[in-house]
Design a protein that fits this description.
The protein is mostly beta strands. Helix content is 5%, strand content 56%. The protein has 2 helices and 15 strands. A 15-stranded mixed sheet has the order 8-7-6-5-4-3-2-1-15-14-13-12-11-10-9, with no helix packed on it. The two termini are 20 Å apart.
Length: 260
């Protein structure tokens, strides 16, 4: 699917696959392609996620995200099916008017919303390959925490409300790259700590003073469009969580640019 241009105009740059684990159980996989439109200068991230929920039903999610080479969102589309439930979400951003339009359609529910925002934002989507693109919305400071505002939808199978902004805090851990073993390959990546952060400055200051223990993610990021190699849920209570620890691991990531 391409919202703004035909697939014949897109050049495939990367392809890959993620495995999703809960403890030692593999419960989901995500196959993805990253394409580039040289004339219109935008990237298209195509992701297909297949897995089973705890009830045994099959969950299918398709994600398409189009973003300019300046990392300004153009369009995002999410399609989900689970048993007899299904839903679609469509985000379209008009850069000229700084207006984002949102449409939701479910089996028994529909809704829409519109909001104004500047162009330096990211749409949070249910795919690992697009999960860290928000890093490209501003210059990263390696010596301190970096705060971001990302747009998220909380609608699943019925329309509850329009998308809202949520805060994230990202901090690089260590000055040197970490070595990961993926299959038979050893790869280098930078390690980051990612957690939710209040968008209210006063709340953030109070939280920092209390030094609250927060759940967070450890993210190992590649040098390819911030595609992660590994995402691990953890917290300051890691030992208690180990049995239920979730992680997403890259199975393979192929760079196709040299072959095009």
């Amino acid at each position: 699917m391409s919202y703004f241009g035909g697939p014949d105009k897109l050049v495939k740059q990367f392809r890959g696959c993620f495995d999703y684990y809960r403890g030692n159980e593999l419960y989901c996989e995500e196959n993805f392609d990253v394409l580039y439109h040289p004339q219109s200068q935008y990237y298209q991230f195509d992701s297909k996620i297949i897995g089973r929920v705890k009830t045994g039903e099959m969950l299918s999610i398709n994600v398409v995200y189009e973003i300019t080479d300046k990392f300004i969102p153009r369009m995002a589309y999410v399609s989900k099916t689970l048993g007899n439930q299904s839903s679609t979400e469509l985000f379209t951003f008009d850069q000229k008017t700084s207006t984002l339009n949102y449409e939701f359609k479910g089996v028994d529910s529909e809704g829409s919303a519109q909001l104004n925002t500047n162009y330096k934002f990211h749409i949070s989507l249910p795919s690992a390959v697009t999960s860290m693109l928000f890093m490209k919305t501003r210059k990263f400071n390696n010596t301190s925490k970096n705060n971001y505002s990302v747009l998220s939808s909380y609608n699943q199978w019925s329309f509850e409300k329009g998308p809202e902004f949520q805060g994230l805090s990202l901090e690089r851990i260590g000055a040197n790259k970490d070595q990961l073993t993926i299959g038979d390959s050893k790869i280098q990546s930078f390690k980051y700590k990612l957690c939710k952060e209040s968008l209210d400055a006063a709340s953030t200051m109070m939280s920092n003073k209390r030094q609250e223990k927060k759940a967070y993610l450890l993210v190992y990021i590649s040098g390819h469009l911030t595609i992660p190699y590994k995402i691990v849920t953890t917290s300051d209570r890691a030992e208690e969580m180990r049995a239920e620890q979730s992680r997403i691991m890259i199975r393979y990531l192929n760079d196709l640019r040299e072959s095009n």
